[in-house]
Design goal:
The chain has about 230 residues and is of the alpha/beta class. The chain is built from seven helices and seven strands. It folds into two domains: about 1-130, Rossmann fold; about 155-225, Hect, E3 ligase catalytic domain fold. It has helices spanning about 15-30, 55-65, 85-95, 115-150, 175-185, 190-200, 215-220, and strands spanning about 1-10, 35-45, 70-75, 100-105, 110-115, 160-165, 170. A hairpin with a 2-residue loop joins strand 6 and strand 7. The longest helix is centred in the middle third of the chain and has 35 residues, at about 115-150. It is elongated and about 60 Å long. The termini are far apart.
Length: about 230
Amino acid sequence: MKKAVGYIRVSSDDQANSLVAQKEKIEAYAKFSSLELVDVFVDENVSGGMPIFERKGGAAMELFVRQNKISDIVIVKPDRAFRNVVNSLQTMEKWKEEGVSLHISDMGGVSLNTNSAIARLLFTTVISMAEFEKNITGERIRTVFESKKISGKKYSRPMYGYNNVDGMMVINNQEQAIIDCMREWKVSGMSYSKIASSLNSAGVKSKCGKTFHTSTIKYILTNPMCK
């Protein structure tokens, strides 16, 4: 029986149920496909835009796969692992050279094993469409946010560096100072992960009063709306 690992990802704290659902689907798929599921790797509060090997769980999975000669990786949907065409193609080519097959248990109601050329073509097409939809949505959101920022109206949710006061965005000077510090650290060469760790060690909290994550820091420093 071939050995396999599973990989699951959620992008926010309120998706805990999704972790359980993804794990159950992966276990069911492995059993149906006669794969020995030896471990399941998890990334929580991580954006799909981050390359999989830069995520804590994704990096741990890659090391485990190489060290234990794992032949198969199972995910539920393509966007759990990828949201970028270039990164997905590079990763797929790397796994192909290492003799590792990627299984997607749910591709619109059917499963997919990327060990064939036609399956890889279908996979690439799906990822391309996902990236296109993400970019289009991002453009629309930025247009709306820019309009609200100019008018001083609040955004759909609290944004680090600002407070929502009576429907208007009001600059939070303390948070803006922290953002300036983040930018200085990034320019000096610190990684997003190191910046998050430094803020957490200093007891600085995120907008929702929780610890900072790598993805949070990246969002703040790359999102023009936070400036």
